[in-house]
Amino acid sequence: MADAPAPRGAVPGVRRGAVTAVPFAVATAAYVGVFVAHRDRLPGRIATHFSGDGTADGFMGRTAALWFATGLLVGLGLLFTVVTVATRDTSGFRVTAALGVGSAVTLGYLSVVTVLANSDVPDPAAVELPVRHAAASLLLGVATGASAWWLIGPGPRPAPPPPGPSLRLAEGEAAAWSRTAVSRPMLLVAAAVTLGALYALVSASWPTGLPLLAVGLLCAAFAAVRVTVDRRGVTVASTVLPRPRLILPLDTVTGADSVHVHALGDFGGWGYRIRSNRRGFVLRSGEALSVRTKAGRAYVVTVDDATTAAALLNGLVARGTGERG
Q: Omega before 244 cis (within 30°)?
């Protein structure tokens, strides 16, 4: 079984982490510095949340506000840093880094201007934060995130994989392979979300319960998929629902291989994942079937005995090519 090759010239893990850690560190330092410098000018209770017209509608103690905003910035910084370090796929790293940098700028800006808006105001209820600040924070976040995405660049294309195993098939010989792949973590998430949805529905909270129920049932439906390889090509379908399903006709396939994937590092998580020129049903880390198509895209699905599936698919493709030739 071959490991999924990392892109040549990929950004080292320490540098990847710094891309998101540094902006959050700067945002945290700026917020704490401004807060400490204005501490004596702040009331004991400060406005921390504002309505659509800019008037204060949420308040917090001065010390609690400092710890809350600092904890939020540090926590999100750690989260984005861990994800960017773990992400080995270049396109996934670009997206994660862009989101991290944009989030750091947006939250840092809003945290600082909130402190400034509360300075020298005796009554926190009178504090206002004009909507232009929210707009400015979003624009700055989008601009810096897009700049990070552009500066990182797409990176070099990965080296082409070596030819996979092939099962020799005689003309007219029929063969098929099928396996079910189950994600226990997704089943647990589905169960937890569904229970939360049922509780919300019983509590008469329909706006919350119905969306949660839909998410829970959708997670349950795709926590187990059946992967089939036969003369028609490759089919990946939920074991519960007939649709949607992924079908790769045999005449669109150029080859297949068994690879080892890391759910977070290669695809940024679990479920149906989309990357540049790569798609995947990633239910866990480990063995996976990787199918290459004529369009230059690879489809990956985590499933046991992927070596046999790849060999059969390569044999079917080779026989079909020979028959057309």
A: yes
Instruction: Note whether 103 and 115 are same-domain residues.
Output: yes
Residue 14, both tokens: 């320490």
17 & 90 share domain: yes
In the chain (325 residues long), the average pLDDT of successive 10-residue segments reads 45 69 93 93 88 83 91 91 74 80 93 91 86 90 89 67 71 85 80 83 74 80 85 86 81 90 78 79 88 89 90 86 52
Torsions phi, psi for 240 (to 5 deg): -110, -50
C-alpha distance from residue 296 to each of 23, 126, 157, 160, 276 (Å): 36, 59, 12, 11, 10
Residue 184, phi-psi category: left (phi > 0), alpha (psi -120 to 50), beta (remainder): alpha
Buried b (16+ CB within 10 A) or exposed e, 66-88: beebeeebeebbeebbebbbbbb
pLDDT of residue 263: 80
**The pLDDT of residue 212:** 80
Count of Cβ atoms closer than 10 Å to residue 206 Cβ: 10
* Residue 280 domain flag: yes
When divided into structural domains, the chain yields a total of 3
Same domain, residue pair 6 and 144: yes
Beta bridge partners of 18: none
